[in-house]
Amino acid sequence: MGIKIFIISSIxxxxxxxxxxxxxxxxxxxxxxxxxxxKTLNISNTNKKYPISFAYLISGSKGDATKxxxxxxxLYHPGNYYLIHMDHGAPKKDHRDVIxxxxxxxxxxxxxxxxxxxxxxxxxxxxxxxxSTTLHAMAILLRNCQWDWFINLSASDYPLxxxxxxxxxxxxxxxxxxxxxxxxxxxxxxxxxxxxIFIDPALYSNKKSDIWQVTKQRSLPTAFKLYTGSAWTxxxxxxxxxxxxxxxxxxxxxxxxxxxxxxxPEGYFQTVICNSKDYKNTTANSDLHYITWDNPPKQHPRSxxxxxxxxxxxxxxxxxxxxxxNDIVLDKIDRELLRRNQTQFSFGGWxxxxxxxxxHRVCNDLKIENYGVLKPSLNSKKLKNMLSNxxxxxxxxxxxxx
Length: 402
Fold this sequence. Notes:
Layout: H1 2-21, E1 26-28, H2 37-45, E2 54-60, H3 65-75, E3 81-86, H4 92-104, H5 106-111, E4 114-117, H6 129-144, E5 149-154, E6 158-159, H7 163-170, E7 178-179, E8 182-183, H8 189-194, E9 198-199, E10 212-213, E11 228-229, E12 234-236, H9 237-244, H10 250-258, H11 268-274, E13 283-284, E14 289-290, H12 309-315, E15 319-320, H13 328-338, E16 351-356, E17 360-366, H14 378-390, H15 393-396
Parallel strand pairs: 2-3, 2-5, 3-4, 7-13, 14-15
Antiparallel strand pairs: 1-4, 5-12, 6-15, 8-11, 9-10, 16-17
């Protein structure tokens, strides 16, 4: 039995590396209407730039096309980069819907910073294929563009600040820091996740099914210490390169281990960073999300509603999850925090704007001469204060890899 388990694990791990490092075909948004060609050239040649840049992975599965389109419009900024992954198991209609949306948005074509993974991966909930997709996206973004932080979001996430606010607030944050919620206090997870061996069929099958557990268990590791935390992170470019390129073998050793681990996205990055002498002191212990749980907590967090709006705002977090599709609380976030409606972008200095109802300026499309201009709101100052608290000397070192 032990030999069989080892063989299966080796095959799956080889498949995982194949998924991660084989070049991926992309569908890009490099659609440019004839009258916009000069604008595209002006952007690429401009000397203006933003102080920092974010690279986003937006992941979705069956039924998430509407969520992805709304989230992308709310998150969009010409100074950032966006990679969309739709689960291979989602209906072709969902894939086509997202592709058409990206292709037909003129601003995406003018700037050329939105991509869709064409050769998408099967993703099994709680399986390592979620982790492999994240690493795959990270590798693509490292290869294709320059950015400072990598952020992974699902279609059920939503921003609580504009990207101008986010860029402005993070412009004073050291770029080597990693915002990753982590703890070594695994509790029940030691036995329920550390010892069992799980197999994700999506690593070797073209039919989607749930992960399954083999009968034999393994001992807890002694070569490294296990950590757990949130699957949602903001990782520095340096640490991202370490995970993908890895000038030492730790990231690969742990990738092998987490291939047979349940809910590996909730432990892989935490375990890598806290066992690395070069990066363990770069951790800010926060996932920057507002999330609420039932008591006792269930497998998934609560869906946020209008009742949660005030606490969301007071948290000063830049992101929240999870939301149901087109819940009315999203309309309130759009209107009061992002200054947009469903058909427009979140407000920013980069876009041409007009008064709507004589009250609010709304963001319509790209204004070339405004590229590099930021117009942060009061929310940026609140976010900056929250970040200062997280990385303050008293809290920062006390909460690292404990």
